[in-house]
Amino acid sequence: MHILTRIFVIAALVFLCACSDGAATVGGKSDSPPPIFPDYVSVTVPCNIAPLNFSIRGTDRIRAEFAVSGSGRLKVEGRRGMVDIPVDEWRGLMAEAAGDSVRVTVSAWGALNPEGVEYSPFSFYVSRDSVDGWLAYRLIEPGYEGWMQMGIYQRDLSSFDEKVLVDNSVNGMGCVNCHSFAGYSPERMLFHARGEGGGTVFFEGGGVEKVDLAKVGPGKQGVYPMWSPDGRYVAFSSNSTFQSFFGGHGQVLEVYDQASDLMVYGVQTGEMAVDGRFQTEDRWETFPAWTPDGRSLVFCSAEPHSMPLEREKVHYDILRVGFDPETGTFGERVDTLYNARVSGGSASFPRVSPDGRFLMFARADYGTFPIWHDEADLAMIRLDDGVQVDVSALNSTLSESCHEWSSSGRWVVIGSRRLDGRYTRLFIAHVSPEGVCGKPFLLPQRDPEHNMWRLKSYNVPQFVRGEVRLPQRDLKNLFK
Fold first, then answer.
1. Among positive and negative, which fits the CA dihedral 237, 410, 105, 97?
2. Helix (H) or strand (E) holding 92
3. Where are the domains of the chain?
4. Interatomic CA distance for residues 251 and 254, integer angstroms
5. What end-to-end distance do the CA atoms of the chain give, in Å?
6. What is the CATH number of domain 31-127?
7. In the chain, what is the greatest distance between 2 CA atoms, to the nearest angstrom?
8. How confident is the model at residue 249 (pLDDT cuts 50, 70, 90)?
9. What is the pTM of this model?
10. How far, in Å, CA of 415 to CA of 165, rounded?
11. CATH ID of 140-146+221-461, from 2.120.10, 1.10.10, 2.40.128, 2.50.20
């Protein structure tokens, strides 16, 4: 009897716990959607994205029920006001929901609602368009002159795994930046390592090589690299960059150039291709990017002004020039794709969609560095007729800046300061074949509050088809 009694007691406890955890009653209902963070209401997500964990601040307990086509599929209970969705169950839900909407019903209990409240359901759409498996970016404190630890990281977008791609422990705590990949490949990339013994590090064929660009061609260092789609060339601009601080309210500082030129490095030849038209002092050229066929370069260009006093007079156009990959020479014709004097503002970070149909760029009131401009937004034009496309869904009241297309062209990642105006964080948005943009969603994290307590900015996000495996020992040997 003693054993039977124990079994009965244990069974009863299990039953009571199951009821208390999974069948808690709700005291009332709300006509409003839940105030979740991050905001995933009415977003479109790729079918291979990591779980959309969220929280409701100020609550103790939370329950979320996910349903597809009206049928319940997944129920998650959470403490501390956070929903932590199991990865395996989430992947099953995504596989079933691809091409359909997921309806989410959220209930929460806390000091303000001790009896519990069930919020009005919300939905998000699961696109059949998958996204590239990995995302690379630099993490750095949003400082001005100094830093400590910084690095280039890579994130598995189907999970929460984040790995160091390279950090500044390899070069004596110098600066590492300006990463670029050839055709979204994890096997061909480059980055800059600044400081003593620095250079541009190329990763190809499993090995690494350091090149001092200042000893090639016109003898200038390169920034803002963009690797050509076929991996034969890398376009750079050579910039003389400064920053000035402002007193009072409003914009904290302005980052600006006092000189910048265009050049293209031949990876196979080790030679630098330059054109006299883009090496003069009467124009500033910056932010080069390739068209998908690798036969044209688009870049920003502006008339010089006395900086920083005349910073508000600096307005960058977007130009396009042909490039012959067989001869390594520039074409004669230069087209203006975006005329800042006509359309207003100043353009930065031009990026051509993989199908060659659209040109997306950041547009501020003036200048070349939109990250510190609250008014900076993303803009887009059709390349066949130059007509501007409405991408207001991507923008906020604070700065939108660095951005990049996925390899399919169905997704774009955006660097935005919309959460607090100080730190740049990453958002992903769907783009239809017609150029219609969906509502951006914040890069998912296992703990939603991670996006707020990580005191670093995400810089230069780029999609990658797979995990990058740099030989760390060989990297360190480059800087001995």
1. negative
2. helix 87-97
3. 31-127, 140-146+221-461
4. 8
5. 75
6. 2.60.40.10
7. 97
8. low
9. 0.92
10. 19
11. 2.120.10
